[in-house]
Write a structure and sequence with these properties.
2 copies of one chain form a homodimer. Chain A is an alpha/beta fold. In chain A, the strands form 3 sheets. In chain A, strands 1, 2, 3, 4, 5 and 11 form a 6-stranded mixed β-sheet that branches. A 5-stranded mixed β-sheet of chain A has the order 8-7-9-6-10. In chain A, helix 8 runs antiparallel to helix 9. The model of chain A has no long low-confidence stretch (mean pLDDT 96).
Chain lengths: 269, 269
């Protein structure tokens, strides 16, 4: 089995792949587009994409890609993000003048870096920053990335868990060509559009509220070519194989101009 | 009167300032944070911030900054974004091998650039890319930015309106210290949190739907420190000075754990 993820070896996404799928082959991809293409073109059986971070919010590009591709969501995984301060072996913390990493990781460690008087410099990727550090040989620079990235490149971890807010989780979705039929507690992800008129979203949400179906997420994205109209993405508790969920979706179909089920999958516990 | 905006002189945001406020002094700021700080610290009377693009979606950082600062939204403006291909005077289109600009502008002209076989390279800012082109003297490189940016730096416009999708608008919000009292057709922006329970958002939207109040936007953002709980931002037609809107907000107050009015302001026509 082979699973595509975005980033270099040692990326948080690769850690999530191993946590979720166990021991599998992985394919590092340059972009989220490439992850989807790897699954569509059969180079990989699955892709694992980040969809939301508990601090930074949704990864909107992946919402747009889910709509553009005919793939199914078959699982979700939550990864606690713990950043490490990583340097060449033998380097001490007081030698560090500069930290390099992806802007989001730098932002999540901003107070920690300020406290140590370390300057931040953005690069394209977290695991990539460790690779760059290895290649440069710099002894006044640290990378911020996962424990695994440090291990892969034979670098030293000066400190682990340097994120300012420990409630830092990323939610990942497993995507593949064949829809799943989850048993036990499940979630379903859908996308739909509505007529642009007063009360439209209220009516759409009524199909869930009137059946006591719990929504776990709502997200809006611009509808291309129709300024200030939106696509809505909703996650709810339940599976399309259950009667209540099926009736709710039939009911939503009466109001929606477009409605697509992106997948039903076991809820992460 | 002095108005803060994010970007270099010639940025689309500065064009929006002149369109909305007329002839005023402007203060270019490095970051959106700096725009808010300029207004809070009285260096500027107003700030003008982009909140949403019709193709790319919301600028979430500005939603977060509206919550963190005690400023009021007093106006909105829509700017049609028209990108120009900009080069040194005398350079011909067929000389161009590379285009530099902000990643979002490059993305919005991707098909156009592909058609001409021009490579794209990301830099920090649209107007900044024209400044960089001027300083480098490169004759095989074009910048992608506004007409005004080309004029400010004395560069040549090779082609105007090169965006792939002409329905490219950015919505801006004017922010200041004192709340407005709009007359005529108005919009109101609010932010609130709800109990995390089934039907909570449905009840919240009912206060508008039951009064035939039209929502124009809903946006969710993560609630810091409470993974998978959300802040909701809503724009609706109406002003807090009108009885129906005031009753709807009182009603919402019965369900909301937190509710704040960010401002009522004249609707853009």
């Amino acid at each position: 089995m082979k699973v595509a993820f975005q980033g270099e070896s040692g990326a948080y996404s690769e850690q999530a792949v191993f946590n979720y799928f166990g021991t599998v082959d992985t394919k590092p991809c340059e972009s989220f587009d490439a992850v989807f293409d790897s699954v569509v073109g059969d180079a990989c059986d699955f892709g694992l994409i980040p969809i939301e971070n508990s601090l930074a919010g949704s990864i909107h590009q992946n919402y747009d890609l889910l709509l553009r591709h005919d793939l199914h969501i078959v699982g979700e995984h939550l990864l606690r993000v713990q950043h490490c301060l990583i340097a060449w072996p033998g380097v001490k913390k007081e030698d560090i003048k500069k930290a390099i990493s992806h802007p989001q990781a730098l932002g999540q460690c901003a107070a920690y870096l300020r406290g140590l008087g370390i300057k931040a410099e953005s690069v394209y990727d977290t695991a990539g920053s460790v690779k760059m550090l290895k290649e440069s040989g710099a002894r006044d620079t640290a990378a911020i990335a996962s424990r695994r990235a440090a291990e892969i490149y034979g670098m030293q971890i000066l400190e682990e868990g340097i994120e300012d807010n420990s409630e830092n989780y990323t939610r990942f979705l497993a995507i593949t060509k064949k829809a799943g039929e989850p048993e036990g507690e499940a979630k379903t992800s859908i996308v739909f559009t509505l007529r642009n008129q007063p009360g439209a979203l209220f009516k759409a949400l009524s199909v869930f509220a009137l059946r006591d179906i719990d929504l776990t997420k709502i997200e809006s994205r611009p509808l291309q070519g129709k300024p200030w109209e939106y696509l809505f993405y909703i996650d709810f508790i339940g599976a399309t194989g259950e009667e209540t969920a099926r009736k709710a979706l039939d009911h939503l179909g009466e109001y929606a101009l477009m409605l697509r089920v992106l997948g039903s999958y076991p809820r992460y516990k």
